[in-house]
């Protein structure tokens, strides 16, 4: 959708037959497996149930990933647009709603001034949101016994913007040689103290208690995308009890889990993890993204070696081993960060306004995420592993998803951007109906460009609610000026 950009890669919509896709993948050295034929409803893995150790059941193998809309009220309550989005999650057909959207555990920890906040004052709103999901799902599917609903709890750390959409009010754990200057933080920008972290852990526990009271089945202690939970994992240089050793870097998780077990017994816990990360990328002279490394090595990517661009999943494995030992069974695998290497986690042909042209065939990004999740699934067969990053597959999403599930490379396939443009794709897949091509997300990135420029997030190209929203005009003007 960015007018001046001519993508160098073939649009997925042009890969019309299985042979087209197979040949294209081979020509681009992408080793991605897919099933040419979709199985009947009875034989398909999509509708298979997942039984959790806690005794709960998830009714099928499709999940909705957390998707914010930048549309809450100033005090962190949901707006009508928020509710509309959650309704779409509820009627999607997916039986695992992973987190719904990132909800801050304190005002200071918000990623934007319209992010939701969970606290005593807003509590009844979360009861209502939960009930909305239950009502809408029941209306369409008849029962909710096998629907598992989580709330994603977050603190945005380095990427906090609680009061002004243009102004970071970062909370950082260590001075990052690349990210401090990239996001305007001085070399001596103050670090969060251990005492501040201790008190934040109490906020997470209090938020989990409220989430449980509101009805949510689990909370996701977010450890991804460069936000605070994720930053702990690369706080190799930090001194004190939250930095340095693996034990110290995971103390945040352990203490939150301990608090939840004490104060919200019976609440299931999940973790969304950036299982790999790379060095920050920047726009090169041609507009294409490149790793911002120079000749240096890079030591701050959790899940990569010191090249900063090669995977090393020893520590992510140790993290999942720890999670398992803490009784956590639900794991959602994602990668990287939308702030400094967005092509990793949201493969797209058309970059958002603060991004860069794809440095690799986006299918490679999808494949990387599938392979990382598969490697972790193999190491931890008892964990329930949810995969992310499938939207770029577009028309081929069901074919790849079926192959992944059939081969036990993940337990559930997550839907991110696709659910914004085509909320009922999971239901169509479950019922073996052909995809509705006009609704397929084509990775135009407007849902990221809009909030990066202070607007609501939604599928402006394809969803009539956003197409006809006053922000659509504003977005157009912003894009025309790029
Ligand atoms: C507009 C937008 C909002 C998002 N909000 C969240 C969020 O609140 N929490 C989160 O963990 N990930 C969030 N993500 C990331 C998605 O959950 C997902 O990982 C990503 O879009 C890749 O999956 P996909 O290819 O299906 O889109 C967001 C992504 C987009 C595009
Ligand atoms: S959901 Fe819509 S706006 Fe977002 S990437 Fe897909 S097509 Fe673009």
Describe the structure in brief.
With 482 residues, this protein is of the alpha/beta class.
Looking at this protein, list some descriptive labels:
binds flavin mononucleotide, globular, eight-stranded parallel beta barrel, 13 strands, 17 helices, two-stranded antiparallel sheet, alpha/beta, binds iron/sulfur cluster
Q: Tell me the structural class.
A: alpha/beta
Q: How would you sum up the global shape?
A: globular
Q: What value does the average pLDDT take? A: 96
- Tell me about the largest β-sheet: 8 strands, parallel, barrel
Number of helices: 17
Characterise the protein shown here.
This protein is of the alpha/beta class and 482 residues long. It is built from 17 helices and 13 strands. The termini are close together. It binds flavin mononucleotide and iron/sulfur cluster (SF4). Iron/sulfur cluster binds next to α13 and α15.
Outline the fold blueprint.
Blueprint: H1 18-27, E1 50-51, E2 57-58, E3 62-64, H2 80-91, E4 96-97, E5 102-104, H3 123-141, E6 148-154, H4 179-182, H5 194-214, E7 218-221, H6 228-233, H7 246-249, H8 251-263, E8 268-276, E9 281-283, E10 289-291, H9 314-325, E11 330-335, H10 342-345, H11 362-379, E12 384-387, H12 397-406, E13 412-415, H13 417-421, H14 425-430, H15 446-452, H16 464-467, H17 470-480
Parallel strand pairs: 3-4, 3-13, 4-6, 5-6, 6-7, 7-8, 8-11, 11-12, 12-13
Antiparallel strand pairs: 1-2, 9-10
Helix pairs in contact: 2-3, 3-5, 5-8
The structure holds flavin mononucleotide (FMN) and iron/sulfur cluster.
């Amino acid at each position: 959708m960015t007018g001046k950009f001519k993508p160098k890669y073939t649009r997925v919509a042009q890969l019309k037959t299985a042979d087209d896709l197979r040949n294209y993948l081979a020509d681009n050295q992408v080793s991605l497996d897919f099933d040419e034929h979709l199985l009947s409803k009875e034989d398909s893995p999509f509708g298979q149930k997942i039984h959790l150790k806690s005794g709960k059941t998830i009714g099928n193998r499709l999940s909705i990933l957390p998707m914010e809309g930048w549309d809450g009220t100033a005090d962190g309550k949901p707006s009508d647009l928020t509710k509309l989005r959650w309704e779409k999650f509820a009627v999607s057909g997916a039986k695992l709603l992973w987190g719904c959207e990132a909800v801050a555990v304190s005002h200071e920890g918000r990623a934007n001034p319209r992010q939701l906040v969970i606290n005593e004052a807003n509590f009844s709103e979360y009861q209502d949101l939960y009930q909305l999901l239950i009502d809408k799902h029941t209306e369409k599917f008849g029962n909710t016994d096998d629907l598992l609903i989580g709330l994603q709890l977050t603190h945005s750390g380095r990427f906090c913007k609680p009061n002004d959409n243009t102004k970071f009010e970062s909370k950082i754990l260590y001075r990052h040689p690349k990210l401090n200057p990239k996001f305007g933080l001085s070399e001596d920008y103050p670090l969060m103290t251990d005492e501040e972290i201790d008190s934040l852990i109490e906020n997470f526990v209090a938020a989990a208690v409220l989430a449980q009271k509101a009805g949510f089945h689990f909370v996701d202690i977010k450890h991804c995308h460069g936000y605070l939970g994720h930053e702990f994992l690369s706080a190799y240089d930090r001194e004190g009890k939250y930095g340095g050793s693996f034990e110290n870097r995971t103390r945040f998780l352990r203490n939150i889990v301990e608090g939840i077990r004490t104060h919200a017994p019976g609440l299931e816990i999940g973790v969304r993890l950036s299982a790999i990360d790379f060095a920050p990328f920047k726009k090169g002279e041609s507009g294409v993204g490149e790793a911002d490394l120079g000749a240096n090595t890079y030591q701050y990517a959790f899940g990569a070696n010191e090249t900063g661009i090669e995977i090393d999943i020893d520590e992510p494995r140790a993290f999942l081993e720890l999670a398992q030992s803490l009784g956590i069974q639900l794991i959602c695998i994602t990668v990287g960060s939308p702030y400094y290497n967005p092509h990793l986690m949201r493969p797209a042909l058309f970059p958002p306004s603060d991004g860069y042209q794809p440095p690799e065939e986006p299918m490679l990004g999808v494949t990387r995420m599938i392979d990382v999740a598969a490697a972790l699934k193999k190491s931890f067969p008892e964990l329930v592993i949810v995969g992310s990053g499938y939207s770029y597959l577009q028309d081929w999403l069901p074919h790849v998803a079926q192959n992944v599930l059939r081969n036990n490379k993940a337990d559930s396939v997550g839907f991110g951007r696709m659910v914004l443009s085509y909320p009922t794709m999971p239901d169509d897949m479950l019922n073996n109906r052909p995809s509705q091509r006009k609704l397929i997300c084509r990775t135009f990135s407007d849902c990221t460009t809009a909030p990066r420029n202070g607007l609501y997030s939604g599928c402006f190209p394809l969803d009539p609610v956003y197409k006809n929203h006053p922000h659509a005009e504003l977005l157009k003007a912003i894009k025309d000026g790029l």
